[in-house]
Amino acid sequence: MSTGWVAVGVRSTAMRRRRLGPEAIRALAARPSLAAALAELGTGPYAHDVRPDQTLAEAQRAVVATFVWNVRVLAGWAPRDGVVMLRALTAPVEALNIDEHLQRGREPVPPAPYQLGALATAWPRLAATAGVPALRSVLAQSSWDDPGSDDPHDVSVAIRLSAAGRILVDVPKARTWASAAAALVLARELAYRAAPPRTRVRFLASRVLGPAAGGALSLQELAGALPPAARWALADVSAPEQLWRAEAGWWARVDREAAAMADRDAAGAGALVGTVARLAVDAWRVRAALELAARGGHVAEDFGAVA
Question: How far is CA 273 from CA 81, 164, 169, 208, 257, in A?
Fold first, then answer.
């Protein structure tokens, strides 16, 4: 094993301590106000970006920004093939930047994009575009691929399916997670959109999930057409209102499997992938906890599905 991977293993072990963890997240969610939650959060592993005077939206963005910063630190220690994996694993964050770029002009003060640095796929070029056709042209010339439509919603769905496909290729240890994530993206399209998914969306879904799933016309049809690697994502879903629990279940399974992966492969790709996954899960849970604290800290029973 190269010295680069050994260094990644050591750094990954240290980085996993930069999580709040389920018990602390539940306590955060029970705080009586957002201000109280931020006062606590700003002294822990999210202090890099969280500030006590932030709004809920700003604080939730700051949590993701801290996650991105931690992954960039890991990238500084990783060998070249590790950086390729990290670039694919952070593609969903670049997708958030793209979504917000599509909305620019509609918000008085748009948020600053997440700073991906060397982990960006095409963001500097995408950020310079004005209008969907120009953005789509840049996407088509990058590993994001052509979303096949100028409709912002279709672009958003297409890039998420594209991100899953990239993880499938570049991060073998995360293939099951990527397939299941793509299944959830397509499930939401089938459950909540009046029109069937566009041809390009179906094509991108087919590359990850196979032609049968990509051609599904209903939630039930999709659940029965998924490949074994992704079938668990919709195992308990029979109606659209159950999708949020399926998504929470996806995060919970990723966390369990990532913990085991990091333990098994303490100085290799497993340590890197497992660490990034656990940091991402923690950030997702913290964002949910902040929203509950902002509502007065009344932790609902359903919060158990999140943390």
Answer: 12, 15, 14, 19, 11
